[in-house]
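ok trying this again, last paste got cut off
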Amino acid sequence: MKNKSSLMNKAFKNYRWVTTGIMLLGILIFVTVAYLMTESVGKVVILTLVAICSNALLLVGLIFPLKYFVSNYNDVMESMKQGDLKLFKRINEFESNKMFSKLIRSIASVLEEFVELVKGSFVTVESITSTTRTVNQYSDEAISAVEEISRMMQQIAGGATRQAAQSQTGEALMETLSEEITLAYNNCHLIMEETNKMMKVNKEGHVSIATLQERAQSANNATHEISDMISLLMEKMKDIALFVETIESIASQTNLLALNAAIEAARAGEAGRGFGVVAEEIRKLADQSHNSTNEIKNLVASIEVETSTVNEAMIKMNSVSEEEKEAVASAKEVFNKIAVSIEAIIEKILLTNEAISKVNQDKEQVNRVIEEVA
């Protein structure tokens, strides 16, 4: 990291030298152009100015901001890959880059909502589990009551055919039977109430899953969008590398022309002395331009490496996003199965309620028979 910082500082230092050289070159050209500059020297100066200005603008306006963004974005992607989805705490690192900050904010918001929905789904599942336990408890009590009713009905049937002296025992059994029937009837109502609550919770969970599925799709789309932008960025870096090579070629040609101009000035003797000074300054600027292009090439190479790392992280993020999408779909299927099971439970409870109502009617008939026998 220190080497990268030192490299950027050296590039800025070269940029200041280039700017100073351009100003000096302008003054020298203004003084000597009227009587020394030939057509070939004019080309030398123009090429030198183009190379130096292009290097300075490229270095300050594009390479350093891009280098800063890619370096920080790579760290963020690594954090997301490890499961850290809270990007808001690092969003200020991208505020200076309007090109990407809006997209990063959008992804961070989607991921935060995604996490909240997942937490809500866990709460819903826990609620359904608790309600299911309650329903099972009431169902067990209802089954026990029905078994007790069946046993007492058998006793009553046997006692009704015995002697009238046993009628008091039958009356006691009928009182117990009446209590058991009432208990079973009340348990059925409680089961119905708990089942309705469970159905309501399941519907809410189903809605949450649908929202979660929508958010997961949004996150997946945003991830693919960033992946596309990273691919485009890598293509642009290749274009920048070609542009830097072109500038380096121009600087080399400028250096060669300046050398030829210096030779010609030496041949001209005293008359070419001023021309030689201009040629020497042009050669120095060409050397500085060459050094700056080397610094830019090193920065571009470093950015390409980090961009490749970010691209690999995005590929892994795409894979994780697809897995999350499948998990949400599976959760939705589970909630659908829960809804089907609840409907089946309600149907059985209704049948049990009808059976208990019929037992209650039979109880009244048995009471009348016992009274007649007594």
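PB: full thing came through this time. The domain at 2-373 is CATH 1.10.287.950 (Helix Hairpins).
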